[in-house]
Amino acid sequence: MADIVVRAGALTKTYSEENEKLEVLKGIDLEIRKGETVALMGPSGAGKSTLLHILGLMDSASSGNLELMGRKIEDLSETEADAIRNTQVGFLFQFHYLLPGLTLLENSALPLRIAGMENVQALQAAQGLLKSVGLEDRAHHLPSRVSGGEQQRAALARAMAAHPKFLICDEPTGNLDLERGKEIRDLIWALAKAEGTAVIVATHNPELAASADRVLRLVDGRVTEK
Ligand SMILES: Nc1ncnc2c1ncn2[C@@H]1O[C@H](COP(=O)(O)OP(=O)(O)OP(=O)(O)O)[C@@H](O)[C@H]1O
Ligand SMILES: [Mg+2]
C-alpha cells in the first residue's frame, strides 16, 4: 500500500566476533504507515538500537528485506541509500549530538544544507522549526549555553528540519527528567502528526510507550505486538 513508509521482512542480524556469533535479530517483520507512531520496547541488549540502525540505513541486516518509502533497499546503490538516509530519515538519540561550535539555529539548519539548500533559506526554515519546539528565543545560543531539555528540543528540530518521512528515536527521553521527557514526547508526537511522519521510538519508559499508536516488543530476536 502506498502509505506504508517502512516494511521489514524476516530481517536478521548476527554480529560476528573472533570465534563467537551473536544472533541479535532472528527474523523481524514490521510495517509502519504514514503518520503512525510506534514504540519499541524490550530488555536492555535485546537489539532495539541494532534494529533502529538497520531501519535508518546506518547499518545493514545480515539477511531479510527492507523497504523504505516503497524502495527496496537491497536494490539501491550506496549513493541512493545515502540520499534517502540524509533527506527522508530523521534521527533523535539519547544524547543530542549537536555540534558544539554551531548555534542551535545553525545546528537545526544542517540537514537542509546537506540536502543542498542555500544557507539563507536553510536558516529561515530552521528558524520556523525552532519556533515549533519553543526555542525561537534560544536560536543564537551555542548548545553549551542552553539546558538539557532545550538541547534535546533543538536536536528534534534538526531531526525534523528536512521534513523526513520517517523519524527514528532511540531513547529520546533517556537523559531527561520526567517533565522534560514529557515535553519532548509531546513535541515528537505533535510534529509527527502535523507532518504525517512515521515514527519509531525505542524506549524503556512505559508511559512514553503507552502514548504511541502501537507498542512493539523485541524479545529473543523477534518482535511481537502488544
Ligand atoms: N557493533 C557490535 N558488535 C558486536 N555486538 C554488538 C554490536 N552492537 C551491539 N552489539 C550487541 O548486540 C546486542 C543488542 O544490542 P543493542 O544495542 O541493539 O540493544 P538495545 O536493545 O538497544 O539495548 P539498550 O536498551 O541497553 O539500549 C547486545 O548484546 C550488544 O552487546
Ligand atoms: Mg539501545
Q: What can you tell me about this protein's structure?
A:
This protein is of the alpha/beta class. The chain has one domain: Rossmann fold, CATH 3.40.50.300. It contains 7 helices and 10 strands. Strand 7, helix 6 and strand 8 (198-202) form a beta-alpha-beta unit. The protein is globular and about 50 Å long. The model has no long low-confidence stretch (mean pLDDT 95). Adenosine-5'-triphosphate binds next to strand 2 and helix 1.
Features of this protein?
226 residues; alpha/beta; Rossmann fold; 7 helices; 29% strand; binds adenosine-5'-triphosphate; binds magnesium ion
Concise description?
With 226 residues, the protein is of the alpha/beta class.
Number of helices: 7
In what order do the strands lie side by side in the largest sheet? 6-7-8-3-9-10
Estimate the global geometry from the Cα principal axes. Answer: globular
SSE topology string? EEEHEEHEHHHEHEHEE
The assembly state of the depicted protein chains is single chain
The whole-number mean of residue pLDDT values reads: 95
* Topology, number of strands: 10
Q: Ligands in the structure? A: adenosine-5'-triphosphate, magnesium ion
